[in-house]
Amino acid sequence: MDISTKVPPTPPSSDAEPQRAARGATRIGDRVFLGLSRGSGIFLLVLMAAIAVFLSYRAVLAIGEDEGNFFTTFEWNPTGNPPVFGIAVLAFGTIVSSVIAMAIAVPVAVGIALFITHYAPRKLGGTIAYVVDLLAAVPSIVYGLWGALVLVPQLDGLYGWLNDYLGWTGIFEWQGGAPRSMLTVGILLAIMILPIITNVSREVFRQVPQMHEEAALALGATRWEVIRMAVLPFGRSGVISASMLGLGRALGETMAVAMVLSSSFEINLSLLDPGGGTFAQNIASKFSEATEIGRDALIASGLVLFVITLLVNGAARLIIARRKEFSGANA
Amino acid sequence: MSNATLSQKRPSTLRAASLPKWFGWAVAAGSVALGLGISTVAGLDSSIQWALIAGLLFIVGTFGIAARVEGKRQAKDRVATSLVWVAFLFAVIPLASLVYETVKRGVKVLDGYFLSHSMGVVATSEPGGGIYHAILGTLEQVGLAAAISVPVGVLTAIYLVEYGRGNLAKAVTFFVDVMTGIPSIVAGLFVLSTWILVLGMGPSGFAGAMALTILMLPVVVRSTEEMLKLVPNELREASLALGVPKWRTILKVVLPTAIGGITTGVMLAVARIAGETAPVLLLVWGSNYINANPFADPQASLPMYIYLQFQQSGGSGAAYDRAWAASLTLIAFIMILNLAARGIAHWKAPKSGR
Questions:
Q1: How big is the A-B interface in CB pairs under 8 Å?
Q2: Residues B323 and B230 in one domain
Q3: What is the domain range of residue B44?
């Protein structure tokens, strides 16, 4: 679209060249081609609309059957008589796990991005950037397997420690079960979204005008002062949008959470004790035994997840769009 | 502060005191040793704990010593440096461990037999069996998804770059962005609600492929769009000036110029969807038997296979071994696609006009 504004427009093909009417063959070819490509675009819009419509339709069916309040019920029993289910626990779990993930991942990702662009020797930085790029492609199921079989056994000691020193807060209380809890999920999600946030932040930091940094250096600033005064202010919106993209991933992550979390339908204030659930995890774990109404109920919870991720991603895109020179979309 | 603790360096009144170059390494080594010492004394067996202690000691130690010798601003700078290093190391450890564990545990059962046999007659707790059916399923589902989304995606990108003006193009651009963020489980639920619940179809590889298409389309559109924008306008104008119709210009001039980048984008998109489990779980269900027909009956796929082995293992080592071996295969497949895609991008880059 940039091109179309920069250059004098090429002659519009479809209807604005009557003098060429004699060459019917080319015009038909052009029409067909324009039709095909426009059709593809329209197909995409129809698809999006269909997603919203069908999910809403099934969701309405389900909520109509629901005897509890869909938003505040602490129970998931769509096959019961009467069927009662609600998303309160799922919403809580999704928010808590994503918040933990963001709290860990964003500072670390910014640190790695700074390391790659400003601290590491140039060659090492390039290699690390490449490896992080590749790690972004590791599928979530592998993270899930690693989390369940490698990470979880490692966390016993840390949990005991947190319980000993911070147990009095109530948040870090631990009854001593297997550490398949919200905190574990948060840590795993943080590891999973690190590569994305790092990649996008790195791109922004790389675009900081050289002049700004040199000016700061010339004034006698230390490297940290250069970063604080020149790099971070320039990159702030980029980092925010990168975090939002990561948040979108964390919210919708299914398999890794389903494999690591030992879920239950209750809100547990302690982050270390198993329990709780997230939208996506609940869909994956409840699906196989769900009846028709059960599936509709899951679709209803999926619709809520859909709306939340749309809002988060939309916000990220808006922030990116405000700074046109940087596009995080292809990250 | 300036001349207080000058070391044996050349005395210069213009330079403030500075710590030697090996200072950072020395503090790092010291804090690791101290961290290990504290953990042994306190009887902490988890490696996470001593690493945390060492990291903390490193930062505090750096700040303390540097503040005393070099002054506060330099000390802050050093703390920032060490924080960045600590962040880097803490991030590298899990990611390196992921790769290391997958390779180490994966090679145990990964051999020709494993790649060429299915799980048909093997109980989950027994050793043996393989992933042939899963590879077949993944290739078919991903192939079908690519066969739908590549033409539609490339045509959409052509519309956006070559024709698109006005509201329709704006709407398409916006919704492509929105689509990028759809969680895979939601894509699966959509196909579930239409294909299976409304149309009454059974689970099949094709149903999974449709959900994968939803995930793949926006990636293809985005990357193709970026590539088409890189094609220099002079090429288009030269072709049009010779009287070539626009559609032939696009097919014969624009697309061939951008084909390297488009291929890269498609391969990256394929790599992304090949690892998706959630839609397969909802729509294809997974299977232990070879099912070469993607249009009927449940099928396996590599990620689904990993999940099933993990889920139904009952703690049996054989199933975990198979899950790791399948993970290794999947990662290898995705990495090869990624590397090949980058190779193509690198190889074709000079022609793309930049």
A1: 303
A2: yes
A3: 23-105
Is B262 within the bounds of a domain?
yes
Min CA distance, B182 vs chain A (Å)?
A: 7
Share of chain B above pLDDT 70, in %: 92
Reported pTM: 0.87
Nearest CA in chain B to A142: B327
What's the distance, CA A244 to chain centroid?
7
Model pLDDT, residue A22: 44
Residue B156 with chain A: CB contacts under 8 Å: 37, 40-41, 43-44
The reply to whether residue A255 touches residue B278, judged by beta carbons under 8 angstroms, is: yes
Mean pLDDT of B130-138: 92
Let me know if residue B3 belongs to a domain.
no
- Condensed to tens digits (0 to 9), the pLDDT of residues B239-252 reads 999 999 999 999 99
CB–CB contact B49 A161 (8 Å): yes
Regions of chain A short of the pLDDT cut 50: 1-25, 326-331
Name the residue among A30, A45, A51 with its Cβ closest to that of B171: A45
> Tokens 């990291």 map to which residue?
B55
- Which residues, 6+ apart, have CB-to-CB distance to A185 below 8 Å? A97, A100, A256, A257, A260, A261, A278
Question: Are B169 and B306 members of one domain?
Answer: yes
Strands A76-77 and A84-85: antiparallel
B155 with B291, same domain: the answer is yes
Q: Angle, to 10 degrees, between the axis of helix B166-180 and the axis of helix A24-65?
A: 50
Residues of B in contact with A305 (CB under 8 A): 183, 185-186
| Contact check, Cβ <8 Å, B168/A255 | no
SS3 content of chain B, % helix, strand, coil (to 5): 75, 0, 25
Would you say residue B62 lies in a domain? Answer: yes
B interface mutation test: which of A146, A149, A154, A199 has the most B CBs within 10 A? A146
Angle ∠(A52,A55,A59) on CA atoms, nearest 5: 130
Q: Residue A212 and residue B315: Cα distance in Å, rounded?
A: 57
To test the contact with chain A by mutation, choose from B2, B88, B337 the residue with the greatest count of A C-beta atoms within 10 A, namely B88
Contact B236 A10 (CB under 8 A): yes
A84-322: which CATH number, 1.10.3720.10, 2.60.120.380, 3.30.70.660, 3.40.50.300? Answer: 1.10.3720.10
Looking at per-residue confidence, does A308 or B68 come out higher?
Answer: A308
Say if CB A93 and CB A246 are below 8 A apart. no
Q: What is the CATH number of the domain that holds B293?
A: 1.10.3720.10
Residue A54 is nearest to which of B80, B97, B193, comparing CB atoms?
B193
Residues B313 and B243 in one domain: yes
Distance from CA of A223 to the nearest CA of B (A): 6
A250 Cβ contact partners less than 8 Å away, ≥ 6 residues apart: A97, A98, A101, A102, A189, A192, A193
ipTM: 0.86
**Residues B156 and B100 placed together within one structural domain of the fold:** no
Tally of domains within chain B: 2
Q: Closest Cα of chain A to B5: distance in Å?
A: 20
- Residue B338 tokens read as 């990624």
Residue A329 has a pLDDT of 38
pLDDT of A239-269, one tens digit each? 988 898 899 889 999 999 999 998 888 887 8
Please check whether residue B34 lies inside any domain of the structure: yes
